[in-house]
């Protein structure tokens, strides 16, 4: 990656007694102009001829699974699905690491849950639509997926059942909406039994921030409940719900047939968009779905190939 330019401005003032004041004023003006020029230089220093730094998520991530499916990066080969993400991609193991990685690399591209998006990075438009909750809800922004929770059918404790009822209630769905996700507008008011006990909820790092808020809200109604939250990934969330390690598993994708065949029962608790993100210094504001696919399969290597 090319080094940024540094511009030095030097001025020499004649040591003439009668011009000291004037020289001081000119020095101040030059300093101001120099500062302005430096800002202009910094904002225009991003170079589209540089290589694209492709950043993806780890195997087992529900966000990765949904992303590669939605953009056609995953393709069927007979009965198998093949992930064609370029081998050059840098792999991150959580939403937070994805954000810091893209924020720290001028030429990076990545993807995160829309609800996790912050101002450390820039979300680009996809096919002309901005990544917003309203656009996901209207269908204008099509890069979206469900947030699922899953339990082993027949093994749910009273506390797990009550907590799930809260999540799906009007009060729980209000928490979903408050945190930037798409909620169920037709949810009924909560009428729980407030059972005591302990449950473990675990899985997707994308669902985890929302789940944390839901746990906090539920415990305001039921302070005797103990709910432990473990952040791993969607696949671990499902396998741990199957083997009983988690009472409730979290997945930021649809459940697989193999998971359902093991007795898991899934419930959608929210709909989330996937924001395609770039560094804030990147001058590109919009990409097409085909361009995103081309970048992630390694066909497009430099930013000037997609720059307009």
From TrEMBL:
Keyword field:
Lipoprotein, Palmitate, Phosphate transport, Signal, Transport
Q: Where in the cell is it found?
A: Cell membrane
Signal peptide extent:
1-21
Recorded topology in the membrane: Lipid-anchor
Tell me which InterPro entries the record gives.
PBP_domain (IPR024370), Phosphate_ABC_transporter (IPR050811)
Annotated region (Disordered) at 25-59
Residue ranges of domain PBP in the record:
44-171, 194-305
> Tell me, how does this one assemble?
The complex is composed of two ATP-binding proteins (PstB), two transmembrane proteins (PstC and PstA) and a solute-binding protein (PstS).
Q: What does this protein do?
A: Part of the ABC transporter complex PstSACB involved in phosphate import.
Give the family this protein belongs to, as stated in its UniProt record: Belongs to the PstS family.
Q: What is this protein called?
A: Substrate-binding domain-containing protein
Q: Origin organism of this chain?
A: Dorea ammoniilytica
């Amino acid at each position: 990656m090319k080094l940024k330019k540094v511009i030095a401005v030097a001025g020499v003032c004649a040591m003439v007694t009668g011009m000291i004041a004037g020289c001081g004023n000119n020095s101040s003006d030059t300093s101001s102009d120099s500062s302005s020029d430096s800002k202009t230089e910094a904002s225009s220093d991003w170079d589209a001829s540089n290589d694209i730094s492709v950043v993806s998520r780890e195997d087992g991530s529900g966000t990765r699974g949904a992303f590669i499916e939605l953009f056609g990066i995953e393709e069927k080969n007979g009965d198998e699905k093949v992930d064609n993400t370029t081998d050059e991609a840098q792999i991150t193991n959580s939403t937070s690491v994805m954000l810091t990685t893209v924020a720290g690399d001028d030429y990076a591209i990545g993807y995160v849950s829309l609800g996790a998006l912050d101002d450390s990075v820039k979300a680009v438009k996809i096919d002309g639509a901005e990544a917003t909750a309203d656009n996901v809800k209207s269908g204008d922004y099509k890069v979206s997926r469900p947030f699922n929770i899953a339990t082993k059918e027949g093994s749910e404790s009273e506390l797990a059942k009550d907590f799930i009822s809260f999540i799906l209630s009007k009060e729980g769905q209000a928490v979903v909406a408050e945190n930037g996700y798409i909620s169920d507008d037709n949810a009924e008011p909560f009428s729980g039994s407030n059972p005591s006990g302990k449950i473990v909820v675990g899985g997707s790092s994308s669902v985890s921030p929302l789940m944390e808020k839901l746990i906090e809200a539920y415990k305001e109604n039921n302070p005797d409940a103990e709910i432990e939250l473990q952040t791993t990934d969607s696949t671990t969330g499902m396998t741990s719900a199957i083997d009983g390690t988690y009472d409730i598993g979290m997945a930021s994708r649809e459940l697989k047939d193999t998971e359902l065949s093991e007795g898991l029962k899934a419930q959608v608790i929210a709909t989330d968009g996937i924001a395609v993100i770039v560094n804030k210094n990147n001058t590109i504001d919009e990409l097409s779905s085909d361009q995103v696919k081309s970048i992630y399969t390694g066909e497009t290597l430099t930013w000037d190939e997609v720059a307009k």
